[in-house]
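Two records follow; treat each independently.
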Amino acid sequence: MDSSTIDVETALELHKAVAEKGFAFVDAPVSGGISGAAAGTLTFMIGGDKDTVARAEQVITPMAGRIVHTGGPGMGQSAKIVNNMMLFVNLEACAEGSVLAAKDVGLALSAGEQTGVDLPAAARSTTRAQTPAPTTSMVAVKTIPETNNTTVV
């Protein structure tokens, strides 16, 4: 059993190499992190034939909150890669939304007004957000002799 997250091609090579030696194998990457491991609530995504998966489940069950047989050889890794992609897409969307909200709190208020949501707390925070905060930044102005242009650094 391999519970790491690796590429599908390598998982397929492992299935083949192990079978050639007369052993059974499953690719069984996990999701749930350190806290899931400590709590015994990991999700195992298992790729392999049904009989081997059934045998592996006996070993995995004490660590798992959920066991999903995703299909034949390599499919555990395929499922894990899709799981990671969905996680990263959601993280990217949250990051982009946070940047947008930080740039224009008024955009969120406008959306709330258009949908009929009463946002008094957000309205109060907009007033504060529009008040420039004191800065401690230093600005240097440099004149470029050849062009006589100035650049703010």
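The next record belongs to a different protein.
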Amino acid sequence: MVNKSKVAVAGAVAAATLGVVFATPPIATAEVAPVSSVMLTQGVTSAPFKIRANGNRKVLYRKAVVQPGASTGWHYHLGEEIAVINSGTFTRIDGSDCSVKKYGPGDALVEPIGPDTVHMGINNGTEPVELYVVDVLPTDATAPTVPAPDPGCATNGLTTGGRGK
């Protein structure tokens, strides 16, 4: 005959051992929201614009960084571009009239399309310019911009701009 007290003790030991295993609290895991969003930056523009979508478009979302003293070079855009300056000061020169405009954190700019809209951006500051950019491009575009010849604007002393200074 089996001793009931030995079975009870063995059962208690087994239960206690299993209880330790099963009583261990689960590893805490962060709850994941079903939908989340993180704002990377925001900006304001007064520039009127339309996004023309005749047919399929490719949308690029990118972060661009222009180091101090660097420029984008003269170029034009193949599709609509909306950019927000997250940090730094960005100086834009319009090749059509050599006008100069400075943008800082929180400013947004909308770039025009086509070879008659040549422009250049320069970082004359001491910190990198960080921009968040959305490009809406034709699907066959291999890049958002096309290099362009210098339209003859002076790029020295960009506080006043002007051709040939």
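Discussion point: Residues 4-23 form the longest helix (20 residues). How would you locate this feature using only the token line?
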